[in-house]
Design goal:
By secondary structure, the chain is an alpha/beta fold. The longest helix has 32 residues, at 269-300. Bound molecules: fe (ii) ion.
């Protein structure tokens, strides 16, 4: 009999569900893709129901539900920290009490009530254990050192592990409030971006700056010779405030914070100072991760490193970790943030609690819901949308459109697991067009001009364009490493080359995404370059599209030229009254 485990992560941000059968991931999805609320933190009822549907089972067939953390331990940490910092923590205490006493503390009851699971089937993992399991058990490595780094779980903010066929052994743990993730988030807030959402913007902005505040950052985040670190509480507030993360002393070090939403130019004046602050926290974060990884190597002597936790989404730091430590290979879980907790909890339960045989590594990101050719066709017919079914010409036609300078929507297979669009729900364009970055930014994505786009490149062709270190095969499959663009290629691909000459690449293997691979192959035949600009199929502030209806609605509200859903081609110039939509939304 197959052993079936439903993993759940919820109630912080990016709730998700994962179905694991006999140690293999069958389905995994974030709740936001169903609810359309970005970073939705509610109990992932819709995602869980879809996972069960995908597995062809009901909740009664589930052997165990694995929850990704221990809510009582988390509550204990909140209460202790707030009592220690009373009365400064009074407002946060009130807020936390409301949230926890009405909802978060009753996770077991809510899981039973909302999902219908029998309470005896619930297993409770720990937050960092779930992160560790998500990256180790989904990786191709039999043995690996494992580093998990995030804001905070129950108490841990950082943990070092040894992963072997015997399981995950915890070697060290660093506790709240000493947290790289929360310090990075404090800088995210200081730089005027939303915490738990804008951290990648800080990383992008860092490329415009010089780390001239490095010494000041090191006063906040103190790095020790043994690889450990601590945070000077004089500069932070996040341990007793729910709304503010840094103090006046912090502002004295770095100057005026940026007002959220205000315009800034990272290349001059005040904007340059902010970019220098971003470069400084980025540099210290990299040094901190390198220190932790070196410590882990010294203790384990293993050649493979697996990483997870929100900080592992820092694709610039991931290059530093691989190249500045003796590790030979790096793997980062595609959903390294808290969404990945559901997958990790389920794999932990299978491999460690139930002592099951290890399943296959996760090979592709399209673990979410898909729609059939018939379903998409019916929707287009019902909505009277002009379209053509181009059948086997899909990749040739899409490649021609891209080569002709069109910006296309690409909707194929199941939606992606994790925050990146990896060729299942992507917006694609020609990266060798000098105007393409501005065009996609202003007419399609409506986002900040300083942020570059990422390229997808057909496996085997990546070293024509990029300098890829050995051992990066895994992170570049998941778009989780930034690497240098070869110098002679930089002027030829301005849309995907960042200001510092790097790119966040995505290498596409046929086995991971056959349709996308074929598209790149066709593009290579037409233009000589099997490479495309790839950005997520969503508008600013919205989750990536999930269904054909979301894709169509997004297509109509922006300046995309053509939409491909399965083998259906929808050309905006053929849609009366809609051909100028993108130009009216600026
Ligand atoms: Fe986490």
């Amino acid at each position: 009999m197959a052993r079936t485990i439903l993993g759940i992560s919820a109630l912080y941000h990016d709730s998700s569900a994962t179905l694991v059968v006999d140690g293999n991931v069958v389905a995994a999805a974030c709740e936001e893709r169903f609810s359309r609320l970005k970073h939705d933190s509610s109990l992932p009822v819709r995602a869980a129901q879809w996972c069960l549907e995908q597995g062809g089972i009901t909740i009664d067939d589930v052997d165990h539900l694995a929850y990704y953390e221990k809510p009582l331990k988390k509550f204990e940490r909140l209460m202790i920290m707030q009592l220690l910092h009373f009365p400064k923590s009074f407002k946060a205490f009130q807020r936390a009490s409301m949230l926890w006493l009405t909802d978060k503390l009753w996770v077991r009851n809510n899981l039973v009530r909302e999902l219908g699971i029998h309470p005896s089937k619930i297993l409770w993992s720990e937050h960092h254990l779930s992160h560790a399991a998500s990256t180790f058990y989904a990786s191709p490595f039999e043995e690996a050192a494992v580093l998990t780094v995030d804001g905070v779980g129950e108490w841990a903010t950082t943990a070092l592990w040894r992963g072997t066929p015997d399981g995950l052994e915890k070697l060290h743990e660093i506790h709240f409030p000493h947290s790289i993730g929360l310090v990075y988030s404090a800088f995210t807030a200081f730089l005027g971006f939303r915490v738990n959402n804008g951290e990648y913007k800080v990383m992008g902005m860092a490329a415009y700056g010089e780390p001239r505040f490095e010494e000041e950052v090191r006063r906040v985040l103190i790095l020790n010779d043994d690889g450990s670190f601590s945070v000077d509480k004089k500069y932070i507030k996040y341990h007793y405030s729910a709304t503010e993360s840094y103090t006046k002393d912090f502002e004295e070090l770095f100057g005026e914070p940026r007002f959220p939403g205000s315009h800034f130019d990272p290349t001059s004046g005040e904007g340059k100072r902010l970019a220098d602050v971003a470069a400084s926290i980025q540099k210290v974060t990299e040094d901190c991760l390198v220190g932790l990884a070196n410590r882990l190597y010294e203790e384990t002597g293993l050649e493979n490193l697996c990483m997870a936790g929100g900080v592992a989404l820092n694709s610039v730091a991931n290059l530093e970790v691989l190249t500045r430590t003796p590790f030979k290979r790096l793997h980062v879980h595609p959903a390294a943030g808290d969404a990945g907790g559901s997958l990790g909890a389920a794999l932990w339960a299978h491999n460690e609690v139930l002592d099951g045989a290890r399943g296959e590594p996760v090979n592709h990101a399209g673990l979410g819901k898909s729609w059939t050719h018939e379903q998409i066709g019916e929707m287009l017919k019902d909505l009277k949308i002009a379209h053509e079914d181009i059948g086997d010409d899909l990749c040739q036609q899409a490649a021609s459109d891209i080569a002709d300078g069109k910006v296309i929507g690409w909707f194929q297979g199941g939606f992606e697991w994790g925050p990146r669009a990896l060729g299942f729900r992507s917006i694609l364009a020609n990266p060798r067009d000098v105007e393409m970055q501005d065009r996609v930014n202003e007419k399609v994505k409506f986002r900040e001009r300083f942020r570059p786009f990422a390229p997808s490149v057909m496996a085997g062709a990546e070293s024509r364009y990029f300098e890829i270190p050995e051992g990066a095969e895994q992170p570049i499959r998941w778009m989780l490493m930034v690497v240098p663009v070869k110098e002679d290629q930089r002027p030829l691909m301005p849309a995907i080359t960042h200001i510092d000459g790097t790119a966040r690449i995505h290498v596409v293997e046929k086995s991971a995404n056959p349709a996308y691979h074929s598209l790149l192959e066709a593009l290579g035949e037409k233009t000589g370059h099997p490479i495309v600009l790839n950005t997520s199929f969503n508008l600013k502030g919205e989750p990536i599209v999930s269904s054909p209806v979301h894709a169509l609605a997004t297509f109509m509200r922006c300046g995309l030229d053509v939409l491909y859903m399965g083998s259906y081609r929808i050309d905006k110039s053929q849609m009366r009254g809609l051909d100028r939509v993108g130009e009216t939304t600026e």
